[in-house]
Design goal:
By secondary structure, the chain is mainly alpha-helical. The chain is built from seven helices and four strands, in the order βαβββαααααα.
Length: 175
């Protein structure tokens, strides 16, 4: 089986809940300012979005198939049970977990995290460059401190803590 390269940040199973009788979604193109009907498999994805590109190692694509595959499977089952009209507390927890993960798997969130990371590294380099002796010795603990000090009001409330996947994902929780 080939590895998935179209990584949907809004899962196809979820989009299927909004299709018309022909199985298509109405999609608004902000760039062209037009609406058109499209198949859910052709929207809300980016190629290689969750692929980890390591130096001197093969590209890692299992995050999409194994980690998000588990989350999407659980979310799909929870949403089906919710729509059946007889949800349990476990179902509601599953829906909330799925929604929580959805918030963090969009291109906008990834861009925000990248900006925070770049700003943190730039601030670390600036602070280390103030004292050349400090640059030679390095101080790994400063990265955490700088992240909290660099722009506390700019990101306050938006990035409270990193998302923790605690469902036994073989990629995210490798032994």
């Amino acid at each position: 089986m080939s590895e998935a390269r179209k990584h949907h940040y809004v899962p196809v199973f979820y989009q299927q809940n909004f299709v018309n009788p022909r199985g298509l979604l109405w999609v608004y193109d902000r760039r062209l300012k037009t609406c058109k009907e499209l198949n859910p498999r052709s929207v809300c994805f980016e190629k290689e979005f969750y692929t980890v590109k390591r130096k001197d190692a093969p590209w890692e694509r299992r995050i999409e198939t194994e980690c998000f595959g588990l989350i999407d499977g659980m979310g799909s089952a929870a949403i089906r049970e919710l729509l059946s009209g007889s949800p349990t507390h476990e179902t509601i927890r599953g829906v909330f977990y799925f929604i929580g993960v959805q918030i963090h798997r969009t291109p906008t969130f990834a861009k925000t995290i990248s900006e925070v990371y770049v700003a943190s590294v730039e601030e670390m380099m600036r602070l280390m460059a103030v004292n050349v002796g400090r640059m030679a010795g390095g101080a790994p603990f400063e990265m955490v401190l700088i992240f909290r000090v660099a722009a506390p009001s700019r990101f306050e409330g938006r990035v409270a803590r990193p998302l923790t996947l605690n469902f036994g994902c073989p990629i995210c929780h490798a032994a």
